[in-house]
Amino acid sequence: MMPVEASAFAGRVDHLFFLLIGISVVIIVLVVTLVFGFAVRYRSGSKAKRGPLPRWVKREVEIGWTAVTLFVALFLFWWASSAQVEEWTPPPNALEIHVVAKQWMWKTQHPDGVREINALHVPEGVPVKLVMTSQDVIHSFFVPALRVKQDVLPGRYTQLWFNADRVGKYHLFCAEYCGTDHSRMTGSVVVMTQGDYARWLAAQPQGDDLAAQGAKLFVSMGCSGCHSEGARVHAPSLAGIYGTLQPLSDGSFVRADEGYLRDSIMLPRRQVVAGYAPIMPSFEGIASEDQVVAVIAYLKAMPKGRNEAR
């Protein structure tokens, strides 16, 4: 009845699922019993006493029923939200893999540059963080065995993380209707032992890692002409920018995460840094999502105090 449990999070999801099913069954049985009992007791021609309900029934019973329902609802909310909140923040040592969705395929890229189409190989027992975006429409990354599902949105970065604890090959689906071949947008997540994963990774065609690719794009796209130390243009330094709070021209502050960095490349006038003129050109329609992912990886890897491409 249920998919295999292949992640540390799967058990908690299943417990919550069965709890909701159990409560629903209890409520259905209670309601059906009351309806059937009252239908028989107060059927036409029966001698059951009829008339206004006693005042205590209206007051105590209604207050009690409302209080019990509220308590159950709050308990379920607390249990579900506490489990979800824990899954929002990946461990700092999580293996970061980038995912780009498009009609109708999944493109994944490992930190060392290994790319896959409609497949994702991950090591067993290692936290994996997926940073995802879409090239066209809304998709949804869904792996039932891992009990993870996350919408993948165009123009934004979303993320999820999991810790796969069972070796095997598991189905990957798109759970959001995305066009004509939506049903064919499938793939697989392959969980391997750490030794097998290391050997698989070493056997793949090796290229530049994401940060190195981003460094080359940083130069070829002209970014270094304005954001390097010797540039004539008055542009903000990007050294160590990732994760910092940036003051904006409207007086607010924004955290420099993946979404902010993407917007700064594709929609630079949306959030202008305080003290700088809005002169940066937009790369929307020029840079692909894959290229933006690589540039952001380079900016994330750039150490503090250094703002020249490697």
Question: How would you portray this structure in words?
Answer:
It is a single chain. 24% of the residues are buried. Helix 1 (10-41) packs antiparallel against helix 2 and helix 4 crosses helix 7 (289-301). Helices cover 36% and strands 20% of the residues. It is an alpha+beta fold and 310 residues long. The protein contains 7 helices and 12 strands. The two termini are 53 Å apart.
Tell me the layout of helices and strands.
Elements (H helix, E strand, L loop, with lengths): L9 H32 L13 H34 L6 E8 L2 E5 L5 E3 L1 E5 L4 E7 L4 E5 L4 E5 L5 E5 L5 E7 L11 E7 L1 H10 L6 H11 L3 H4 L17 E3 L5 E3 L2 H9 L22 H13 L9
Parallel strand pairs: 1-5, 4-10
Antiparallel strand pairs: 1-2, 2-3, 5-8, 6-7, 6-9, 9-10, 11-12
Low-confidence runs? 306-310
Q: Strand-residue fraction?
A: 15-25%
Order of helices and strands: HHEEEEEEEEEEHHHEEHH
Side by side, the strands of the main sheet go 3-2-1-5-8
Tally the beta strands.
Answer: 12
